[in-house]
Structure formats: structure tokens, C-alpha cells
Amino acid sequence: KQEVTQIPAALSVPEGENLVLNCSFTDSAIYNLQWFRQDPGKGLTSLLLIQSSQREQTSGRLNASLDKSSGRSTLYIAASQPGDSATYLCAVSGSEKLVFGKGTKLTVNP
Amino acid sequence: GAVVSQHPSRVICKSGTSVKIECRSLDFQATTMFWYRQFPKQSLMLMATSNEGSKATYEQGVEKDKFLINHASLTLSTLTVTSAHPEDSSFYICSGTGGPDYGYTFGSGTRLTVV
């Protein structure tokens, strides 16, 4: 059974810092890995999708890497801003279902 | 990018009535739709998976007669909460995918309050 773990559970940083969120998964037989953000009371916004054959994806200040063999992914956020404050969720897709980690709650302080 | 439109965003209903939530994939064909519920400060909990034209597959502990799911077309899925009770009050979110290569797109969620 696939299990996804995200570390840390919460992170508070001053504005402008570069930061790394970690995600690990137990079963490397995945189709893809997706990073989402969720703002309070809102749905999920997809940030980056990494196919199993890829090693990284970039979008603006965000960079996500995938090491399928070791079951790890990282989300790098450069020059963090208060608007980046949200819960970040890592999810892996295998067979039929999407399996989520419990998320990292990020607070970026002005 | 892919968009899933979910309506309504908020609904308040009286106990015993039914509520329908709609999710439409606007620019892709969602061969599979997923329905989740989320309690405050908790993770998403998968309720059911539906493939277009087929009966939904419900997760263990989810009452299929209470949470009716219809996925009649590749762009529309509905969740009907029947005979709603206060304990059904929650945040419901749908998600659609066109297949493993396309990732998952989520709706904006529906806050259901049963009074």
C-alpha cells in the first residue's frame, strides 16, 4: 500500500528565504507525482506535475524534483513571499488512485 | 491549463433534504472523476471514484445510497447528498483526470452546511 510522507508538517520563514519541502513515498511504481497548494477553505491548485520518466519540473519560482528509485521528491520555492503561505500537498499517482501526504503548512512572514 | 468548475461553492440546506453538487471539466475530457470530503484541518478523504458511463466505486465506509454519484458524460459528474444530516456538513471536492499522463485537476470545493 502506497504511503506518502511530507516533512516538515509546518514551516514558518521570513519573506525572501529560499525553502525546500520534502516528500517521500514507499512504492516507486508510480505514474507521476504532483505538487498542489491549498489555501484555507479552498480547493487544490496544481503547481507542478512530474511524470515518472522525468526528474524535475520548473514553474516560475518553483522547482520540483523526483527521484523515483529512492522514493523522494522535493519542492523548492525561491524568494518566498507572503502570498506563498498555504498548505502544500504532495500526491503520487499509481494504478488508479491518487495518494496524498498530510501536507506542509507554510507561513511566510512579511 | 485544465480546469474543473465546481458548483455551488457554498450551500446551506435543511436536515432531511437533498443537495446536488456539480463538477464540470471545461477544457478536457475527464475519463475518471473522484469525490473527496475534507474536515477542518484534516486531509482529503476519498469517497468514491467514477468512470464515465459506469457505476461509481465507493470507498469502505461511504454509504452509496446516501452519496449518489453520476458521471453521465466525459465533462460532467454530480454528487447528490440525500437526506442530509448535520454530520454530513463538510467540504466536498471533486477531481478529474484524463488519464495517468495528465495529472489531476481539482474543483474549488463546496462547503455544505446542514442545519
How are the elements arranged and paired?
The complex is a heterodimer of chains A (110) and B (115).
Chain A lengths: L3 E4 L2 E5 L4 E7 L6 E7 L5 E8 L4 E4 L2 E6 L4 E6 L8 E9 L2 E4 L3 E6 L1
Parallel strand pairs in A: 2-11
Antiparallel strand pairs in A: 1-3, 3-8, 4-5, 4-9, 6-7, 7-8, 9-10, 9-11
Chain B lengths: L3 E4 L2 E4 L5 E7 L6 E7 L6 E7 L5 E2 L8 E7 L2 E6 L8 E8 L7 E2 L3 E5 L1
Parallel strand pairs in B: 2-11
Antiparallel strand pairs in B: 1-3, 3-8, 4-5, 4-9, 5-6, 7-8, 9-10, 9-11
Provide an overview of this structure.
The complex is a heterodimer of chains A (110) and B (115). Chain A has 110 residues and is mostly beta strands. Chain A is built from no helices and 11 strands. In chain A, a hairpin with a 5-residue loop joins strand 4 (32-38) and strand 5. Chain B has strands at 4-7, 10-13, 19-25, 32-38, 45-51, 57-58, 67-73, 76-81, 90-97, 105-106, 110-114. In chain B, strand 5 and strand 6 (57-58) form a beta hairpin. In chain B, strands 2, 4, 5, 6, 9, 10 and 11 form a 7-stranded mixed beta sheet that branches. In chain B, strands 1-3-8-7 form a 4-stranded antiparallel beta sheet, with no helix packed on it. At the A-B interface, strand 4, strand 5 and strand 10 of A face strand 9 and strand 10 of B.
Average pLDDT rating of chain A:
95
The span between the termini of chain A is 41 Å
How many strands, which pairing sense, and closed or not: the largest β-sheet of chain A?
6 strands, mixed
How many individual helices of chain B? 0
Radius of gyration of chain A: 13 Å
Which bin fits the share of residues in helices of chain A? under 10%
- How far apart the termini of chain B lie comes to 37 Å
Shape of chain B: globular
Q: Characterize the overall form of chain A.
A: globular
How many strands appear in the DSSP assignment of chain A? 11
Annotation, overall tally of beta strands of chain B: 11
Q: Secondary-structure element order of chain A, as H and E? A: EEEEEEEEEEE
What is the element string of chain B, with H for helices and E for strands? EEEEEEEEEEE
Instruction: Sketch the major β-sheet of chain B.
Output: 7 strands, mixed
Proportion of beta-strand residues of chain B: over 45%
